[in-house]
Q: What sequence folds into this?
């Protein structure tokens, strides 16, 4: 397969000034007529267009048929253009939407037509310069049967519609903004919409519409409310106002990712639109708000200013994730949001960055671009944007954003352009920041503090390192937030040593240490007593922090740190120490034991009713097994699972009374479901208590009761989740009743599949094998596939890693089956295999064998090939 390199980038030879597309929609052969007004910028003699899986009908230049003079390969079309400076190119092709199970290009979902063009799907619709730096004015005419397609949508504004012969009709849409073809969209089908209006800051009324299948019309309120909140937030926080007169969202069931920000016509996975309390959990509600926000924010960061090439993906995605994180933080709780984001980063991005697929946020090469929509490009990319925010402050960051739009509106640009805007707007040099874009691997930040009780000085010695590179890397610029406390919890005033003033920025009682060398010291003066150090506050840089802090200091920070992240981190560190110490005990054949240091801190949080319940819930939740595994070069799966479970049971037993008291108190509270901060926090804490209690066999009834009596999906699912890990009659009865109730609601049924795929039940692998034979399991629906195969590989520690390799064998077979249907999804399901080096000896062999069996497949897609071959090399 062809490898694409950033270093090979060349500017386009042609400009497609405008395009008129006409779609004559038919399920198995849709004719696409594509009329482009082209400028030959460099007097090139050949124009090479991208195109895949297209049936070519004809090619005309300025009205003359030149079909015979053009050359066609599987992925290109070459057109002679010698002597032509501007010309009209008219290409007619035909595609098969019904047979398109890869869900890229034009395809059918639940009988409706829909498109997905990012990254390189437009070339599956028509021949084009399918690259993000070719910006074009689009006009789209859609013709279709009226009976099956009451709604005909595309980007921009509707400029014409009418009736045609044979019960067909048409609509013409025109987008006044130039855009790259990856932002093109078309939707047609029998859909209904909910409508609202948003009045912008500059007093224009925007028509807001959410299109769904008629049966889902009662599940759109939260999505609409989220859209309105997003529009308002972007005006207030960034001064960014919506630009078209209409904003449409369409929810579809078959979708490869979460959603797509096509100009004026977002297409969404229905999972991120549809919600009502009986069917959606708090996590679903939060996901909808975040994804609606994310796609809306792309209108400026992605659409108005787009990427020059796909190596710049983090320019739009890292920045837009940062923006959606800030939005959610403002809508709910900044502290909770930050902790949840750090958890996600550590559990998913850190492992990616430690494995064979590790890449910088700006990858330097790819085989299949779809494989680079990764946690690294998105989430680590957002952390890098956050670094600018921390270094420049809110005002400085806003100045940088304003300059970025002033300079680049309507352009396709690079990550350097973003950095230059940030630097120039603030008159600072940020060149060193570029290293974050080039460097893969999670940096390790080692800190040692020395207090001198005579001079009253505290020296903070910092050094940075990327283990796999030893010393061979240019240092990164890292803002390290710090505060100092007295023993009894008073925050101390900070006086940096005069020679360090440039690199220590003090704001109130917090300082930012600007680490820019491999090793550097920062000195604070006039510290009267040895302080308790609160370090890396707010997780101010995406690093692994090595700081040997005593258990006493950690316990103090748990009780008094004003930074919620450090407070949470401190109890997590205590828990992690507890778990790793006991894993060592288990491995050396010694008895496991619970330490007072940890339980005292744990009990403190459990009893501390002054603390926000959502933060309590987070603090009482043990580190995830994947994160525990990350602490080891080679992880002993069985020991991690065993000790993790053992610790939970110990805590449940020791604090049964407290858990029950807290549970019963919270269970009385929220009768009616509201998606609001305190209610969410209460449900969260209540269900954490339930999780512990359900580890005690005599409390299983409590879960059954909650399952049977709750009216909202958050509580029903929490109960069923805990039940699913038990070996009980209650488990079977509740799973059965849930299925009967929800078998016709695809999104709810996905939850039923996912719970069983993640279950720690002793026969879970056998259950999962049954699940793929279930009549409701379909390989063509990505959500269903992810619910079973994705969840199994990622979360079912015991089943997937079964010592005889049967879990690996099963998943490898499933991947090969799926690859022929939907390569994009199949390539993602492979991910858990790629970490094979991280497991013990025999498992490594078995995982590699499974990977090899996939690679031996003759017809493997380039998507799956890239991941499998890179992880074996
Ligand atoms: N910009 C989008 C990325 C994307 C995508 C979305 C749906 C289906 C396939 C896709 N490939 C790439 C989503 C986003 O980040 O907003
Ligand atoms: Zn995005």
A:
């Amino acid at each position: 397969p062809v490898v694409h390199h950033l270093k090979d980038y060349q500017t386009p030879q042609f400009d497609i000034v405008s395009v008129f597309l006409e779609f004559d929609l038919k399920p198995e052969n849709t004719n696409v007529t594509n009329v482009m007004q082209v400028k030959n910028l460099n007097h090139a003699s050949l124009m090479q267009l991208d195109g895949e899986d297209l049936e070519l009908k004809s090619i005309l230049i300025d009205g003359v048929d030149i079909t015979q003079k053009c050359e066609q390969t599987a992925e290109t079309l070459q057109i002679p253009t010698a002597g032509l400076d501007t010309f009209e190119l008219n290409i007619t092709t035909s595609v098969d939407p019904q047979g398109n199970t890869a869900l890229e290009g034009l395809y059918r979902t639940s009988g409706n037509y829909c498109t997905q063009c990012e990254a390189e799907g437009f070339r599956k619709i028509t021949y084009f310069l399918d690259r993000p730096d070719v910006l074009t004015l689009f006009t789209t005419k859609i013709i279709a049967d009226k009976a099956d397609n009451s709604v005909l949508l595309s980007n921009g504004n509707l400029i014409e519609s009418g009736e045609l012969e044979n019960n067909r009709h048409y609509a013409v849409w025109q987008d006044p903004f130039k855009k790259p073809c990856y932002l093109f969209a078309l939707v047609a089908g029998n859909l209904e919409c909910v409508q609202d209006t948003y009045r912008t800051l500059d007093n224009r009324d925007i028509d807001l519409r959410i299109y769904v299948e008629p049966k889902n019309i009662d599940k759109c309120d939260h999505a609409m409310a989220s859209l309105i909140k997003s529009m308002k937030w972007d005006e207030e926080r960034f001064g960014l106002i919506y630009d078209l007169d209409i904003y449409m969202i369409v929810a579809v069931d078959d979708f490869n990712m979460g959603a797509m920000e096509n100009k004026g016509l977002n297409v969404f996975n229905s999972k991120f639109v549809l919600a009502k309390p009986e069917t959606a959990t708090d996590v679903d509600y939060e996901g909808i708000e975040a994804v609606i926000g994310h796609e809306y924010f792309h209108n400026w960061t992605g659409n108005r200013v787009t990427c020059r090439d796909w190596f710049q993906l983090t320019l739009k995605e890292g920045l837009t994730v940062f923006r959606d994180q800030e939005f959610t933080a403002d809508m709910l709780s900044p502290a909770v949001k930050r902790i949840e984001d750090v958890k996600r980063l550590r559990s998913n991005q850190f492992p990616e960055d430690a494995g064979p697929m590790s890449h910088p946020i700006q990858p330097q090469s790819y085989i299949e671009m779809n494989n680079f929509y990764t946690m690294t490009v998105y989430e680590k990319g957002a952390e890098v944007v956050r670094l600018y925010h921390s270094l420049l402050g809110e005002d400085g960051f806003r100045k940088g954003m304003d300059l970025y739009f002033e300079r680049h509106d309507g352009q396709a640009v690079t990550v350097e352009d973003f950095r230059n805007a940030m630097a120039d707007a603030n008159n600072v040099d940020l060149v060193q920041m570029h290293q974050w874009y080039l460097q893969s691997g999670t940096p390790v930040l080692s800190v040692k503090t020395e207090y001198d009780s005579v001079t009253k000085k505290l020296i903070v010695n910092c050094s940075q390192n990327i283990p796999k590179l030893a010393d061979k890397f240019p240092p990164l610029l890292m803002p390290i937030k710090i505060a100092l406390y007295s023993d009894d919890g008073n925050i101390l005033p900070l006086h940096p040593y005069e020679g360090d003033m440039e690199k220590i920025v003090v704001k109130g009682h917090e300082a930012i240490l600007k680490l820019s060398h491999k090793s550097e010291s920062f000195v604070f003066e006039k510290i009267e007593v040895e302080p308790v150090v609160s370090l890396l506050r707010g997780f101010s840089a995406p690093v692994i922090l090595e700081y040997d802090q005593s258990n006493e200091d950690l316990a103090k920070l748990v009780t008094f740190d004003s930074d919620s992240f450090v407070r949470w981190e401190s109890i997590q560190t205590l828990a992690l120490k507890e778990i790793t110490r006991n894993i060592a005990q288990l491995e050396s054949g010694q008895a496991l034991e619970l330490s007072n240091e940890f339980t005292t801190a744990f009990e403190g949080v459990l009893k501390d009713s002054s603390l926000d319940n959502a933060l309590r819930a987070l603090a009482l939740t043990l580190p995830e097994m994947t994160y525990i595994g990350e602490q080891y070069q080679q992880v002993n799966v069985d020991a991690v699972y065993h000790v993790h479970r053992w610790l939970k049971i110990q805590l449940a037993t020791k604090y049964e009374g407290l858990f029950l008291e807290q549970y019963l108190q919270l269970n009385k509270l929220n009768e009616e479901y509201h998606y609001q901060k305190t209610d969410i926090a209460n449900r969260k804490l209540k269900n954490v208590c339930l999780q512990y209690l359900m580890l005690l066999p005599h409390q299983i009834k409590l879960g059954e009761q909650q399952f049977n009596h709750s009216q909202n999906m958050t509580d029903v699912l929490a109960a069923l989740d805990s039940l699913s890990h038990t070996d009980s009659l209650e488990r079977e009865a509740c799973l059965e009743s849930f299925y009967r109730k929800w078998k016709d609601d695809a999104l709810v049924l996905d939850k039923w599949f996912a719970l069983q795929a993640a279950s720690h039940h002793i026969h879970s692998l056998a259950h999962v094998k049954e699940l793929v034979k279930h009549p409701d399991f379909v390989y063509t629906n990505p959500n269903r596939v992810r619910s079973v195969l994705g969840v199994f590989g990622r979360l079912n520690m015991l089943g997937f890693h079964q010592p005889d390799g049967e879990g690996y064998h099963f998943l490898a077979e499933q991947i090969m089956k799926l690859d022929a249907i939907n390569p994009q999804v199949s390539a993602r399901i492979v991910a858990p295999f790629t970490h094979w080096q991280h497991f013990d000896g025999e498992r490594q062999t078995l995982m590699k064998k499974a990977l090899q069996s996939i690679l031996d497949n003759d017809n493997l897609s380039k998507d799956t090939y890239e991941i499998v071959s890179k992880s074996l090399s």
Summary: Residues 356 and 871 are 5 Å apart (CA to CA). The first strand starts at residue 4 and ends at 5. The two ends are 16 Å apart (CA to CA).
